[in-house]
Amino acid sequence: MAEQGEDDREYRRLEDCEEDSPAGEEEEEQLLLHVTEGPTDSWHHIKDLDISLTPPHIYQFHQRNGFACVLLSDVLELVQFLFVVTFSTFLLCCVDYDVLFATRPLNHSHVPERAKVTLPDAVLPAPQCARRLRGSGWLLFLLVLAGAVWLCRLVTALRRLVGYWEIRSFYIRALGIPA
């Protein structure tokens, strides 16, 4: 099967450039150059692919196991950041630690004084949680800052994914390496 893929490719002789070849070199050692399908490739107009497809990105693409794994990893990193910020905010604003650590008794009349306190007993109702959140200026500032950091990470991830998509296309079309 590998021979069939090689047979489909077109090769042309590299024109002898006087400035590139040393003086006195015979024409016997002409190089063969792989020619892509045509101007439909997005890298056809690029003269120096070494600069365009930078080695660190190609290496990372290979080490991170291809485009699908890179996409999944970036999406999960963004979801993880949102989860950490949301859960931290919940723990700061919506849990009554005095009730949780039994320094203040519960206001329920049906619970005995020595009863085990659980997390649902210590969670504040949503309106009270929202009031505590709105009342803390520093926390609101930190949440806005975390939102800005998340948006920057989203833009960075999208820019990286576009670059990795180009590398993926180059691997598949020009090099003939399947995903």
TrEMBL record:
Keyword set includes Cell membrane: no
Recorded family membership: Belongs to the ATG9 family.
UniProt name for this protein: Autophagy-related protein 9
Alphabetic keyword roster: Autophagy, Lipid transport, Membrane, Transmembrane, Transmembrane helix, Transport
Keyword Transport belongs to the record: yes
Subcellular localization, as worded in the UniProt entry: Preautophagosomal structure membrane
Major localization class: membrane
Composition bias type Acidic residues, residue spans: 16-27
Region annotation (Disordered) ranges: 1-27
UniProt function note: Phospholipid scramblase involved in autophagy. Cycles between the preautophagosomal structure/phagophore assembly site (PAS) and the cytoplasmic vesicle pool and supplies membrane for the growing autophagosome. Lipid scramblase activity plays a key role in preautophagosomal structure/phagophore assembly by distributing the phospholipids that arrive through ATG2 from the cytoplasmic to the luminal leaflet of the bilayer, thereby driving autophagosomal membrane expansion.
Membrane-spanning parts: 138-158
PANTHER family: APG9 AUTOPHAGY 9 (PTHR13038), AUTOPHAGY-RELATED PROTEIN 9B (PTHR13038:SF14)
Superkingdom of this protein's organism: Eukaryota
Pfam families, sorted: ATG9
GO biological process, one term: reticulophagy
Species in which this protein is naturally found: Vidua macroura
Record's bilayer topology term: Multi-pass membrane protein
Cellular component GO terms held in the UniProt record: autophagosome; phagophore assembly site membrane
